[in-house]
């Protein structure tokens, strides 16, 4: 599994934190997503990618 | 097989089409849209799109090739004018009649028009053509009057101020964002508006436009070169009149998107779903809700199974006001208990009812919003939520 976050696109919407809390966090100082883990529950990560309003999350299974 | 006809080519409509294919639906899928544009993302219209240094086109929800690859037939620039549920058909504006096995109503909402407020200087902000027109006007600085201190009005006010406009916001209520946040918490969202010299006037009753600008009910005139009406939205459900589905401030749906008529579903701004988390049965005009509802309805149609958990996502939205990110999750009421904190950089507000946390608002604190959303989903109690918030804001 390979998870990517395009920090250029990320706007800190935090939808990913709600979808996959073990994998994503958002740094309040930068307002950008932070990857907490290299892998996790695939369904949750897929939902995080899909629920991102700026499509900043990529996932290869 | 007549397949699925989706009326409304916006976020909810496109998400239904996507969900159908993901769940293996093999039949024809048609997506009917009144606008000529390929389906696009709406939130940037009142935010990035109004800025001079941003592209004039909002992001497309999917590239054109996606519709071909997924065999989704696009019927753009076509408006549905009537539902004939007894015949399992919809009628389009050119008279064509589309038959379906399942119909999904995703016709969204439109900007509310106010009587007495019309003319060439009056703008609304709902679709791409509206946004491009306003963006063009903003190119040459002048005086803007915004009617309504809701999120659309406050976003546009911020964008205009950044482009050198003198901005006055007139709001009938005694505080900003009252309808969404109640009277207390809205103040957290307008600090920068005040700091940048935007004139926010509350309790202002607007009567009509006049040659000089806008006339209030007390007879005074606020001069304006352009007027933006941000008075909320009304669901696009007029075309359903007499069609055989129950409509009452939106198409009435259960927690799975089923309407009063088998085979007819609805999602997004035009629909009023029951939410299993909040117990409320209210229309929600939010990006995340539209997407979540569409995904649930698509799964139910594709699998033939509307059992299991229904819609239980806490409503969530965001706003960009100047350089600040406002995020809100849950449901607040005018009489909610409110707890607020501001640490010089971040703001956090909690809303509660009885012993229950019911909403979270953050400004420039996305991480806290993410954590707050989880607390809502876990039905965290009020005392525990306040203890968490106090520690988080230390």
TrEMBL record, chain A:
InterPro entries found in the cross-reference section: 3Fe4S_ferredoxin, Fe-S_cluster_ET
Pfam families xref list: Fer4_13
GO molecular function annotation: 3 iron, 4 sulfur cluster binding; electron transfer activity; iron ion binding
Cofactor(s), by name: [3Fe-4S] cluster
Function: Ferredoxins are iron-sulfur proteins that transfer electrons in a wide variety of metabolic reactions.
Species per Swiss-Prot/TrEMBL record: Thermomonospora echinospora
Keywords associated with the record: 3Fe-4S, Electron transport, Iron, Iron-sulfur, Metal-binding, Transport
Name under which the protein is recorded: Ferredoxin
Domain of life assignment: Bacteria
Automatic annotation (TrEMBL), chain B:
Alphabetically ordered keywords of this record: FAD, Flavoprotein, Oxidoreductase
Coiled coil (UniProt feature): none
Source species of the chain: Thermomonospora echinospora
GO molecular function ontology, one term from the record: oxidoreductase activity, acting on NAD(P)H
Protein known as: Reductase C-terminal
One GO location term (cellular component): cytoplasm
InterPro entries: FAD-oxidoreductase/Apoptosis (IPR050446), FAD/NAD-bd_sf (IPR036188), FAD/NAD-binding_dom (IPR023753), FAD/NAD-linked_Rdtase_dimer_sf (IPR016156), Reductase_C (IPR028202)
Lineage: Bacteria, Bacillati, Actinomycetota, Actinomycetes, Streptosporangiales
Location of the FAD/NAD(P)-binding domain: 4-294
Cofactor requirements of the protein: FAD
Domain (Reductase C-terminal): residue spans on this chain: 316-384
PANTHER family reported for this sequence: APOPTOSIS-INDUCING FACTOR 1, RIESKE DOMAIN-CONTAINING PROTEIN-RELATED
Keyword Oxidoreductase in record: yes
């Amino acid at each position: 599994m390979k998870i990517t976050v395009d920090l250029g696109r990320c706007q800190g919407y935090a939808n990913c934190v709600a979808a996959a809390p073990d994998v994503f966090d958002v740094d309040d100082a930068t307002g950008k997503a932070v990857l907490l883990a290299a892998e996790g529950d695939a369904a949750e990560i897929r939902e995080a990618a899909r629920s991102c309003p700026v499509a900043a999350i990529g996932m290869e299974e | 097989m007549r397949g699925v006809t989706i009326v409304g080519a916006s976020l909810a409509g496109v998400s239904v089409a996507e969900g159908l294919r993901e769940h293996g639906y093999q039949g024809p899928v048609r997506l009917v849209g009144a606008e000529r544009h390929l389906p696009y993302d709406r939130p940037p219209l009142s935010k990035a799109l109004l800025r001079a240094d941003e592209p004039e086109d909002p992001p497309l929800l999917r590239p054109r090739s996606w519709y071909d690859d997924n065999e989704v037939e696009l019927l753009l620039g076509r408006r549905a004018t009537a539902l004939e549920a007894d015949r399992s058909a919809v009628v389009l504006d050119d008279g064509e009649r589309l038959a379906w096995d399942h119909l999904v109503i995703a016709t969204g909402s439109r900007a509310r028009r106010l009587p007495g407020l019309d003319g060439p200087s009056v703008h609304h902000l709902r679709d791409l053509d509206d946004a491009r027109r306003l963006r063009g006007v903003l190119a040459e600085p002048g005086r803007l009057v915004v009617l309504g201190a809701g999120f659309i009005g406050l976003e546009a006010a911020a964008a205009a101020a950044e482009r050198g406009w003198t901005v006055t916001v007139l709001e009938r209520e005694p505080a900003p964002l009252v309808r969404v946040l109640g009277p207390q918490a809205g103040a957290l969202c307008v600090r920068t508006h005040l700091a940048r010299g935007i004139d926010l006037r509350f309790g202002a009753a607007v009567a009509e436009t006049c040659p000089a600008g806008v006339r209030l009910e007390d007879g005074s005139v606020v001069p304006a070169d352009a007027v933006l009406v941000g008075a909320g939205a009304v669901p696009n459900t007029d075309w359903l009149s007499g069609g055989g589905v129950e409509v009452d401030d939106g198409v009435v749906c259960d927690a799975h998107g089923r309407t009063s008529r088998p085979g007819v579903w609805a999602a997004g701004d035009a629909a009023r779903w029951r939410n299993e988390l909040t117990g409320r049965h209210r229309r929600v005009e939010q990006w995340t809700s539209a997407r979540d509802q569409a995904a649930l309805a698509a799964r139910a149609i594709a699998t033939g199974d509307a059992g299991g958990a229904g819609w239980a996502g806490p409503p969530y939205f965001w706003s960009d006001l100047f350089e600040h990110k406002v995020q809100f999750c849950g449901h607040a009421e005018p009489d909610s208990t409110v707890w607020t904190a501001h640490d010089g950089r971040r703001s956090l507000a909690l809303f509660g009812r009885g012993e229950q946390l019911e909403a979270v608002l953050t400004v420039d604190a996305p991480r806290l919003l993410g954590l707050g959303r989880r607390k809502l989903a876990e039905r965290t109690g009020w005392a525990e939520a306040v203890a968490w918030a106090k520690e988080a804001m230390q």
